[in-house]
Amino acid sequence: MTERFTAALHTLDSDRDVGPMLEITGEDAQLVKLDEHHETSGKDGAKVFWEDYRNVFGDLETSFTHSIIGESSAALEWTSTGTLRSGKPFTYRGVTVIEGDEDRLSAVRTYYDSAAFVQGTSGSA
Q1: What is the Cα Rg of the chain in Å?
Q2: What is the pLDDT of residues 40-83, one digit of tens each?
Q3: Distance CA 109, CA 107 (A)
Q4: For labelling alongside 42, which of 10, 19, 22, 48 has CA 20 to 30 A away?
């Protein structure tokens, strides 16, 4: 699932295509971004979750730097670079925790350094 998730995210980054991400998302999956104010569920929720994520950026590239993989979950550290919609360059880092089985994600929780968005500048803390 980790390989399928990272491939789907790379497709989302480069092509703005949420399809591969929706294919691996379970009907009851829970998706949470940074805090409980950005929580959604199911395939319809996942579509909004991933579109909202991608629409923040112009160009976007994510590099996975480290992972810890368990039987039904994984923690993936990453660094993303590119431009915001405004054209300003950014770099930010974070961790995404995924849960599920070989076929479907049951949960996605992502935690990241929001300084690049608050300050509108490149670089992270």
Answers
A1: 14
A2: 999 999 999 999 999 999 999 999 999 999 999 999 999 999 99
A3: 7
A4: 10
| Tokens of residue 35, six digits | 């805090």
The reply to whether the predicted model has a pTM over 0.90 is no
How many residues can be counted in the chain?
125
| CA-to-CA separations, 21 to 77, 86, 110, 120, in angstroms, rounded | 18, 25, 15, 27
- Reduced to 3 states (helix: H, G, I; strand: E, B; else coil), residue 24 is coil
**Contact status, residue 60 vs residue 7, Cβ threshold 8 Å:** no
Which residues are within 8 A (CB) of 24 and not within 5 positions of it... i.e. 6 or more apart? 1, 4, 5, 8, 100, 103, 104, 105
Smallest CA-to-CA distance from 62 within 109, 12, 121 is with 12
The count of other CB atoms within 10 Å of the CB of residue 106 is 17
